[in-house]
Amino acid sequence: MAVLEETIDIAVIGAGHAGCEAALAAARMGLETVVFTVSVDSIAMMPCNPNIGGTSKGHLVKEIDALGGEMGKNIDKTFIQSKMLNKSKGPAVHSLRAQADKRAYSQSMREVLENTDHLTIRQMEIAELIVEDGVLTGVKAVSGAIYHCKAAVLCTGVYLNARCIYGDVSTYTGPNGLQAATHLTDSLKANGVEMVRFKTGTPARIDKRSIDFSKMEEQFGDERVVPFSFSTDPESVQIDQESCWLTYTNEETHKIIRENLSRSPLYSGMIEGTGPRYCPSIEDKVVKFADKNRHQVFLEPEGRYTNEMYVGGMSSSLPEDVQIAMYHTVPGLEHAKIVRNAYAIEYDCINPRQLLPSLEFKAIKNLFSGGQFNGSSGYEEAAAQGLIAGINAALRVQGKEELVLDRSESYIGVLIDDLVTKENHEPYRMMTSRAEYRLLLRQDNADLRLRKYGYRVGLISEEQYEALKRKEQQIQEEIERVENTYVGTSSNINELLEEYGSTLLSGGSSLAELIRRPELNYKMLAEVDPKRPKLPEDVQEQVNINIKYDGYIKRQMKQVEQFKKMEEKKIPENINYDEIQSLRIEAKQKLNLYRPINIGQASRISGVSPADISVLLVYLGHK
After folding, report:
1. Per the annotation, does 277 bind a ligand?
2. 16 is in an annotated binding site
């Protein structure tokens, strides 16, 4: 029987946050790319929380943007509230978070995809991988159509054999009732890919008109909005913002939940998949934190032109009648009307240890993957992986060196390294605590860290790169000037110090020494610094941080030097760990399983001790 056959460069399976970044990266790098989706109307859909960014996740979005990705630009166009989190703490943990207009976000991203050269959108379910002698050569659709390709990126999200569950109701669909992908898992297993079953969940959506906001605390956005994208004009994001609202569960809420735990699929055994530890359902919170008499609940608008409100903090898979009862105990929700029930969703994904740091499968050449399919959670983690997978698929087709970011230079590097070297028994979530060099990996300097890589692969323009170099020069020149500008004990200096509660000068001091005082900063000293040049806000910010935290930054840079030395010690692909006599049996098993590419990566594998690393170094002849 005759079937459609096409030849393309790259196939991207899935058009969620990972698939969009993968497809855009490949197409912008000049490769003929087709992105396949079960529904064109669900491109970049936000099936759960209506926001982008947050603690550590904001870092990922900034890094995606620095590399030439789209997520930051898209949320800048479609946000309805923006807030910088952790402002009372140091700059290492400052994280931007924006509420999105869900529909606008999806429509805007779809428009970008539809108008990108070399990119075609195809509504089609991919059912099979075509693999010959361990090399991917194409993909096959449920219709029988064959797409011969040079590389493919799997970004299936939560759609593979998806099942949505609440109470006794179980439907084999993807999020929001969309079609599940039911064929590809068998093809993956047939090609030796190890699959696992994970789950996530989402809370109910409430009709805004049925909420009593007078019983809740109003949550406002920042007075001055900071954009996500380094290319967004800051003035363009100073808009009228929507409010969010804070309320709390109480003992009555918890009593209803406890009395109905036997009806929860989580506790009845109906749900098989493992859920995310750091994003628990309200049932889990009540059971695991029994000492707490209340939990925060955030009411967040899903968009400007809808009455649907997201009940953040109360995801659940309890039966419908229990959901209504428990929500009605929450102050402000006594008469709440549910638009969409809360539910859990189970799906197939892979054990990510099967991947190289480039996100290519170790056993299937030219096949890459990104997003929740890799066992992670969250829009931002998905987009970051999708971008790297798309870039590396394109670089493979172009015959160029892969792009691998390490954990000393990016949160993306931490994310991917954790996925491919650690045992992940639950959906992985990014957190600032996972980044050991987080003072260097701030969201404010993502462009200074990563834009060079975006330029190298062709996603950052010459103009953008030249602007980055000018910024670097301005920062360095101003730091040197401030370090070498001295002030005395004049009355205007000491009056300024007294105003800010700072110790008066009894002798000369450099401006840099004053900036390092906890109560002072670069901007505060402007009036006693008449020769100060007029500099952009982002340059001033970098000058202040680099001077104020100079000692800590230098200390971490020394640690990074040691880290880099370990990463440079490569391990041959064909090494047989069983031949290394002095290695412990557990270490041999783990090293054979993960197949690390360098000593640094080997040292981060659970079950491989420092003594094992020493043995390995001697065996390989590394000094």
Report:
1. yes
2. yes
- Give residue for tokens 């019983």: 215
Residue 279's pLDDT is 75
Q: Which two tokens stand for residue 348?
A: 């197939």
How far is the C-alpha of 369 from the C-alpha of 393, rounded, in Å? Answer: 9
Average confidence (pLDDT) over 549-553 = 95
Our CA dihedral for 38, 41, 45, 48, rounded to 10 degrees, sits at -90
pLDDT > 60? residue 197: yes
If one compares 200 and 119, the residue with the highest pLDDT of the two is: 119
Q: Is 563 annotated as a binding residue?
A: no
- Where does the pLDDT of residue 1 fall: very low under 50, low under 70, confident under 90, or very high at 90 and above? low
Give me the amino acid identity at 338.
I
Spatial contact of 600 and 561, defined as CB atoms under 8 Å apart: no
pLDDT, residue 258, reads 95
The answer to whether the Cα torsion of 117, 122, 126, 129 is positive or negative is negative
3-state secondary structure of 85: strand
Alpha-carbon gap, residue 521 to 501, rounded angstroms: 13
Do residues 86 and 54 make contact, with C-beta atoms less than 8 angstroms apart? Answer: no
**Identity of the residue numbered 566:** M
The SS3 call for residue 7 is strand
pLDDT at 273: 63
Q: How many residues does the chain have?
A: 623
287 is in an annotated binding site: yes
Residue 279 marked ligand-binding? yes
Element (H, E) at 546: helix 537-548
Give pLDDT, residue 18: 98
Secondary structure of 284-316 in HEC code, one letter for each residue: HHHHHCCCCCCCEEEEEECCCCCCEEEEECCCC
pTM: 0.95
Tokens of 173: 């669909």
∠ CA 552-556-557, nearest 5°, is: 115
- Contact indicator for 42, 59 with CB cutoff of 8 Å: no
What is the rounded distance in angstroms from the CA atom of residue 605 to the CA atom of residue 583? 14
- Separation between Cα atoms, residue 37 and residue 20, nearest integer Å: 10
Known binding residue 127? Answer is no
CA dist 181 and 174 (Å) reads: 8
Known binding residue 19? Answer is yes
